[in-house]
Amino acid sequence: MQPNDPYQSPPPQPVEQFLQQAQPLSTDYLNQIAATPQVKTMNPAVLWGLIVGVLILAIIVIVGVFSASGGPSPSSLAAVAAKFDNLRTISVAAEDDVQSSELRTLNSSLRLSLTNTNRDLVEPLKAQDISLKDKKNSSVAAVTADFEELSGRLEDARLNAVYDRTYAREMSYELKTLRSEMAVLYKKSGSKSLRATLETADSNIKPIVEGLETFNAS
Q: Among 39, 41, 44, 188, who pairs with 72 as Cys (CB 3.0-4.6 Å)?
């Protein structure tokens, strides 16, 4: 072989020299070829199971707290008691304005029933520390505002000589609404005395409502 042969292969280099000439791999490249770690996700069924479990626990706690209280919420009792008080005030004022003897008899029975119920509600109200004269009590204030509007409608009816029909219609509606609220309060209450008062009041009011509806239909 000729010494100056252009096709002659270069002499082999020592291993140490080859390693010195090799370029080191960059950190970015190593990160790219590294295996990407897999993120573990929770099984959807397990996740929904945990959510449902937390909701059930919350419901149990709420029911337990309410059962331990042994009574209705103060706002519901205050609203019902305030309606009894305002209805009695209106029934007393109606004595001088009602013309029909039939309606006058119904109103007298209503006034007596409302008076007795107001008396029987004194102790439950005291136990809940509720005053119907407390203007800061939102339930009492709302009921009072509604009945002030009712008084205004009845006064307009008196001035227009249609008092009896208007009174019978308005009181029938108010008493039916009251009976519905009494039923809710009855279910919430754990007080035997309060439930007995509500039962008596409802049994007295029911025939009066029927009488008012008959009067309106006649």
A: 188
